[in-house]
Design brief:
- The structure holds two protein chains of two kinds.
- Chain A is α/β, with parallel strands linked by helices.
- In chain A, about 40% of the residues lie in helices and about 20% in strands.
- Chain A has one domain (about 1-360): HypD, alpha/beta domain 2 (Rossmann fold, 3-Layer(aba) Sandwich).
- Chain A has a five-stranded parallel beta sheet. A four-stranded parallel beta sheet of chain A has the order 4-3-5-6, with helices on both faces. Chain A has a two-stranded antiparallel sheet with strand order 10-11.
- Chain B folds into two domains: about 35-150, 2-Layer Sandwich (60s Ribosomal Protein L30, Chain: A); about 160-325, Phosphoribosyl-aminoimidazole Synthetase, Chain A, domain 2 (Alpha-Beta Complex).
- In chain B, the strands form three sheets. A seven-stranded mixed beta sheet of chain B has the order 9-11-8-12-10-13-14.
- Chain B is globular, with a radius of gyration of 19 Å.
- Classes of the chains: A alpha/beta, B alpha+beta.
């Protein structure tokens, strides 16, 4: 299929793997590369890339799965909002099975009668709000800089069309502050980052400058096998040449300045605030909340939110796994208590989650 | 974890469905016929072998490109009989219809059922109709049961699979699932997607006529090829190796999967069977399939091995490896 098969060409992949293998030999030391984005984790598993790399190249997964980094409190808030009378709670499918503090999930709330609907795109909410004027449609706004502009577009459209029964519960986060937090973490032992292709189409390449400044390699990489092995090779080249930079492997999607219009739309609806990430704690200036002028579309303003009890799940290793300090196999719950059917932590729920990818593919 | 309420996922054909069957139904209904847990029960009556099966159809939307709930209700049950080696003869038809359902739609559905039954050479010999109040069902649900006679001498069963067997499918994978998803999501970009719903008893009879060493057959419906292979590897305690580059998948199905994040291996089929046969029969089975209208894109996709029993390993397009497990989560509900 055009525009897919070219990026899955076994011969091209083999060529890059040869380069990687020679570079690994010359380096003659272990190299650890973190893929920040959950879609990379998924693709690496789906195409079986890890096994094709030399033993000295280790890939670890970072905090780039939006569902996985959603804090326990935000999960509880979602469950609370979904249970309110007269609410249609719209969400991307990955959130359905994320367990809350008491073991509840949106899936279970739905079985108990809550109107929880899975959408593939936020703009489905517009039709939903129009056809259910007596109900409030609450969309769970989750995701990074790629998803937030689409939610912003829907909010803007609703304001224009005077649709008043739609609101957003925003747990959106932005990527660069999380990388800065990782760079500041002394426990981490990382040589380079595979930077997320899709997010970078929005924020551009310069947003990752702090990685190169910290002396680590970075390559903004696409999600097909050829992309990923080329990205790894670019990182190894930087390490070999002792010249760190932000390389753009995903040049068919990413411009240095990013998508200025989409980012302007995002900024018109959202403002930056401190946010709590599962595993990473509160990261300053890393979350998106709705601006005051959009309060009419802010679920947290429209509903009276009570004190909500939440706590991280005891024994769950998601926190350390999201920081790349542990692998799923190091977690005592992995495969024993925590499985895709009964996920204990969010990294097992999302198809982009590290634990889910490891469970499925290794 | 024990669930105190039924979740949609319990009906998804994945791990939770499996658990529900193994932990709730089988222990209560236990008998040797049921315990085989194949697509049909194989019954011995007066030294003759019959197969008997039942299936309920709740697909949403009831009409989709390439078919409707009626074509599924006939073909699905016919195929469940045929993969057990049976020659399907008689079907029942139970209809649960919601108050207010358009009469013209019901007529179309029944016309389709009659047409598919004629094509498959089966008769619908008994039926039942229930009308429920608006809201108590979503339009229309259909249950069909079927009976067939088994003539093939050796038993077609997971238990007959042996190391060295080859695995053959009769055509492109995921067509039905992709067509229903496209109809549901109203994706105008994939207007050429058609469900593969078809009665396969003719194709299967042809295979059984020429191949004495067919060991097992399954129709790869809910959960797709991935779920069927994972189930079989577990039940047979064999290893299954499949090769991604040999998987017949249409470009439009791949396209919709790329956009929506589905894996075509786990998308439902309604006109696809997976055949396990001895390697010596591989060429004959393939050729027989390819000469049949429902088998033109047949392909040999994998082999059975004996190391690491219970595992299904896919060799990826770039030469990597990944595991194929039972699907979890609510992949696509109400696909059939």
């Amino acid at each position: 299929m055009k525009f897919i098969d070219e990026y899955r060409d076994p011969a091209l992949v083999a060529g890059f793997l040869n380069h990687i293998s020679s570079a690994a030999k010359r380096l003659a030391r272990p190299v650890t590369i973190m893929e920040i984005c959950g879609s990379h984790t998924y693709a690496i598993g789906r195409f079986g890339i890890r096994k094709l790399l030399p033993d000295s190249i280790r890939l670890i997964s970072g905090p780039g799965c939006p569902v996985c980094v959603t804090s326990a409190r935000d999960v509880e808030l979602a469950l609370y909002l979904a249970s309110q009378p007269n609410v249609i709670f719209a969400t991307f499918g990955d959130m359905l099975r994320v367990p809350g503090t008491g073991g509840d999930s949106l899936q279970k709330k739905r079985a108990e009668g809550a109107d929880v609907r899975v959408v593939s795109s936020a703009d489905e909410c517009i039709g939903m709000a129009l056809s259910h004027p007596q109900k409030e449609v609450v969309m769970m706004g989750i995701g990074f800089e790629t998803t937030a502009p689409t939610i912003a577009a829907v909010v803007t459209a609703c304001r224009k069309k005077a649709i008043n029964n739609f609101s957003v519960f925003s747990v959106h986060k932005i990527v660069p502050p999380a990388i800065s937090a990782l760079l500041a973490d002394l426990q981490l032992n990382i040589d380079g980052f595979l930077c997320p292709g899709h997010v970078s189409t929005m924020i551009g390449a310069e947003a990752y400058r702090m990685i190169a400044d910290a002396g680590l390699a970075a390559a903004i990489t696409g999600f097909e096998p050829v992309d990923i092995v080329e990205g790894i090779w670019l990182i190894l080249q930087q390490i070999e040449n002792r010249q760190t930079d932000v390389a753009i492997q995903y040049s068919r999607g990413v411009r240095p300045e990013g998508n200025v219009r989409a980012m302007a739309l995002l900024e018109s609806v959202f403002e930056i605030t401190d946010a709590s990430w599962r595993g990473l704690g509160v990261i300053p200036q890393s979350g998106l909340v709705m601006r005051a002028e959009f309060a009419a579309f802010d679920a947290l303003k429209k509903f009276a939110i009570p004190d909500i009890h939440s706590q991280d799940i005891p024994g769950c290793g998601c926190g350390d796994i999201l920081r790349g300090i542990k692998l799923p196999h190091d977690c005592p719950l992995f495969r024993k208590v925590c499985t895709p059917v009964n996920p204990v932590g969010p990294c097992m729920v999302s198809s982009e989650g590290t634990c889910s990818a490891y469970y499925k593919y290794y | 974890m024990k669930h105190d309420k039924i979740l949609l996922e319990h009906g998804g054909g994945g791990l939770l469905s499996h658990d529900l069957i193994a932990q709730l139904f089988v222990p209560r209904f236990r008998n040797p016929y049921l315990e085989r847990l194949e697509d049909s029960a194989v019954l011995n009556v007066d030294h003759r072998k019959f197969c008997f099966t039942t299936d309920s159809y709740v697909v949403s939307p009831a009409f989709f490109p390439g078919g409707n709930i009626g074509s599924l209700a006939v073909c699905g049950t016919v195929n469940d009989l045929a993969v057990c080696g049976g020659n399907p003869l008689f079907l029942s038809c139970g209809v649960i219809v919601e108050e207010g359902f358009p009469m013209a739609s019901l007529e179309t559905i029944c016309d389709t059922m009659a047409e598919k039954a004629a094509q498959a050479g089966v008769q619908i010999v008994t039926g039942d109709t229930k009308v429920v109040a608006r809201g108590a069902a979503d339009g229309i649900f259909i249950n069909t049961s079927g009976i067939g006679v088994i003539e093939y001498p050796s038993p077609l069963s997971v238990k007959s699979i042996s190391p060295g067997d080859v695995i053959i499918v009769n055509g492109t994978l995921g067509d039905h699932g992709a067509a229903v998803i496209a109809a549901r999501e109203k994706l105008s970009l994939s207007s050429d997607l058609l469900s593969d719903t078809a009665p396969l008893n003719g194709l299967i009879a042809g295979i059984l006529q020429v191949s004495p060493h067919v060991h097992c057959m399954r129709d790869a419906t809910r959960g797709g090829l991935g779920a069927i292979l994972a189930e079989i590897a577990q039940a047979a305690q064999m290893r299954i190796d499949i090769d991604e580059k040999n998987m017949p998948i249409q470009d439009n199905v791949r396209g919709i999967c790329e956009i929506l994040g589905f894996d075509p291996l786990y998308l439902a089929n309604e006109g696809k069977i997976v055949v396990f046969c001895a390697e010596s029969d591989a060429r004959t089975v393939l050729q027989t399939m390819q000469q049949h209208p429902y088998g033109r894109n047949a392909a040999l996709i994998g082999r059975v091995g004996s190391s690491t029993p219970g595992r299904v390993v896919l060799k990826t397009i770039i030469g990597g490896e990944r595991m194929i497990d039972l699907p979890t989560g609510e992949l696509v509900p109400r696909i059939c």
